[in-house]
UniProtKB/TrEMBL annotation:
The keyword Magnesium does not apply. The keyword Repeat does not apply. Keywords: Membrane, Transmembrane, Transmembrane helix. This is Heparan-alpha-glucosaminide N-acetyltransferase catalytic domain-containing protein. Residues 34-191 form the Heparan-alpha-glucosaminide N-acetyltransferase catalytic domain. It comes from the Bacteria.
Amino acid sequence: MLLMALDHIRDLMHIGSLSGDPTDLSATTPALFLTRWVTHLCAPTFVLLSGASAYLSLQKRGDIGAARRFLIGRGLWLVILEFTVVNFGIWFDVHFEVFLLQVIAAIGLGFVVLGALLTWNPKILGIIGVGIVALQHVFSSTTSHLFVPGLIPLGENHNLLVGYPPIPWIAILLVGFGCGRWFEHTRLDRRRLFAIVGLVCIGLFVVLRALNVYGDPAPWSIQQNGLFTCLSFINVTKYPPSLLFDLLMLGWMFLLLSLAECAGNRMTAVLEVYGRVPLFYYLWHWYLIHPLLFIVLFAQGFSPADFRFGFNFGRPEGTSGLELWAVYLLWLGVIAALYPVCRWYDQYKQRNRKQKWLSYL
């Protein structure tokens, strides 16, 4: 959750975010590349754990009909949130010139599909998910926006930007649903299992990436020095998520889950506050960082007449924004400011467990 905020602050405010790709090795710096690369961990982790949570929720409810209604209702709610509250928080464009389909809608659509398939064996659904992930490199050659990103015109002044094509991300959610039973093991068994799965995923990534023939549309290559060659090796494709992207990022996720099983201190207690109210945190972080962008622009001498919306987030044409070190400072301030708000809402939810509407935020 915290890394996600770093990525969004960089996207909105970094001085070069509108003019280049931070993973373009011909134009980036190691610090900028790694700032972007480490946040690749966020989306596949959110999606896989959403699938695992759906499995655990089904086991807790013990009622497929009730679980189906919840998943479909929750999924449709997430899609509605994506194209209204979330999209406005991202663009701050009252005309809604760009509708962005990204991780929230992808999870929502995944819940709807999972709800429809809830009578299927979780292992079968997990295997189907693994199969789609493994064949993603084949599907990436299609022009369907179910598989690949793209821009769909919705009229003269409106567009749908498919940033997260549904099928590759639904596949990860199905994998998570199939893995859900792993979370029912004892803590020691979970720790061992997650470590093994994580190491296997990363091992497969290293082998396939070294072969450079399958698993990602962008092969690695020798660069001007050893550091940039290493960056090329780990520079995997997120849009759409390639097999190698999934192996690397989910491998790290499982290793982190293994480490988290034996963690318990003040730091983890703080982190758990954000994790217990993820959607609340997600919505509020957009509505904090985007006004901060306008404050930065005013401080740099721009006026509202200079603001350009649509794909620009309100950023003026030309040079605006912050250097990378300032992005990090602002990120630390944002997550610190959101902590007491998230803690208050977490405590409110715990005191009012019977209010069903709280499960939707």
